Amino acid sequence: MKLVIRQYLASLKERGELDALLPDLLSQIGFEVFLKPGIGSRQYGVDVGAYGKLSEDSENKVYLFSVKSGDLNRKDWSSGNPQDLRPSIEEIIDVFIPTRIPVEYKSKPIEICLCFGGEVKEEVRSNVSGFLEKHKSNELCFSEWNGDRLAALIEKHLLKEELLPENCRSLLRKSLAMIDEPDISFKHFCQLTQLLTDTEGRNPKQTLTAMRQLYLCLWILYSWCRDEDNLESVYLSTEVALLNAWEASKFAFDKKNQIAVATLETLHSIQLLNLQVSDSYLKEKIIPHAGSLYALSHAVRPSCAVDVNLKLFDVLGRLALGGSWAYWYLAQTSEEDAQAFEYFSNKVSEYQESIKKLIVNNPTLFTIHKDEQAIDLVLAIWFLSLNKVHWGDIHAWLVNITQNTSQMLRQHDKYPTTIQSYAELIEHPVERTEDYRESVTKGSILYPYISVFSAVMGFEEPYETVKEIKEQFLSHCNFQVFFFDEESEKHFYRFDKVHGATLSDVCVTESPEELIRQLNNECQQSDKVYDLSAYKYSLWPLILMGCRHYRLPVPMHFILDLYKHTQNAEEVSTGDSTVSVAE
What we know:
The protein is α/β, with parallel strands linked by helices. The protein has 25 helices and eleven strands. The longest helix is centred in the middle third of the chain and has 33 residues, at 258-290.
């Protein structure tokens, strides 16, 4: 395990990675962290500051950490760059210690810690040793916190047997070993996540420790996946980790004590890591190729056409979810922070354009094979619909999908089905008969979604096509809409039990106005989505993430709330476009 941690530490970058891990480790050891890494403000050589002692028989000291990534070589020690380690230490001695030490620690002994994920190279060892010996005094000493020492401390205080049982260690090792088989790797990490976030029988302090362990394990998995250039396992793992961590952190909501605050900080760190992994996956693997004809379809390396369809809809959902998070961050950003506002505004636009390119250049996205692909379809349409500029493209997409579906049903070809088995799906349809079609299309969430979006946006043609499909081919099929219920808040984030309710026989054969009226009335009565903690605390993308990850239909409230805001013409400007506000 120490070798695993050591390799992970060596791969960490200085900013946002190694210096983000250190405060959690120090807090777990028992230190009081009084200074954390900051952006934009001068810290005079100190990345992390803490007060405490490493062991029972040592004395309390002020520990000042100057952090560098990887190995410490001549270039990182003193090459004329103000960010090198030697000038950083000189700045700590000359400026930070005389002026920045908190008053209560002024009389305490001080230890400056040279912190890096690797080791000191022999080429610079004599220079470092001579410099530290020269500046050492009775009140000031120095120490090296290299990769080996950090790995030992992590193993002792975060991953020791009493805190992280052997079965959890085994699951982490299995997940790392199977990175080239992402589904298997994710399966092991999912089990690890469920064990670490199970709060039954744990007090808040134990839950905090488990949260920190989960965050560390996620980082280890990410570093290995990054080295292997295969982010699939860690993409899925950060999703399930964030959902489960949210459930485990509920005890800390609205509380201000030290453990609660630290728990929410760790939860936020997991959220940021999820954002980083998602951005890496989409920007490196998807967006650069979305504009090339058949590029992503070919990259699937399929055994049959169904493989391409299934994977491309999965990618479509991921793009839409990434864009929804970007939109959420945009809504949290003040226009006064022009740089951040422009960044997230451009990011939203980039994701929307990438979705359109993905659809145009991969025609399989005009054909639905599985009814549950409605989840990814809805995520994409909802995200695109935030900007009316894209409504024309949505209309063309829905026209193609409904026409293709109608033709497939007429010809008894590969029409949408509720079949879950992959082996059965690639053989579908095994019979071209009415009886077979009825047996594999008993219910649907797909068609009600298409009808509702068409009604909300005023798209007559796809609405009428769905109406014809219902009347001519699927009169037996139960068109239904999913709603959260009283049990959903308890089970949604861990998905440890089936929950929710459905509205059956949705009236897609009536007028668009009647359909909206029916669903609007039902949404007012079945409004438990607004009771979800993620909604109450304004983290609504977490609901969309849970729906995509656990394959639950997206709440109809998202679509109808968009409709209400469209009706009220409440809009917010973002650059050259106009994005409707969605609750």
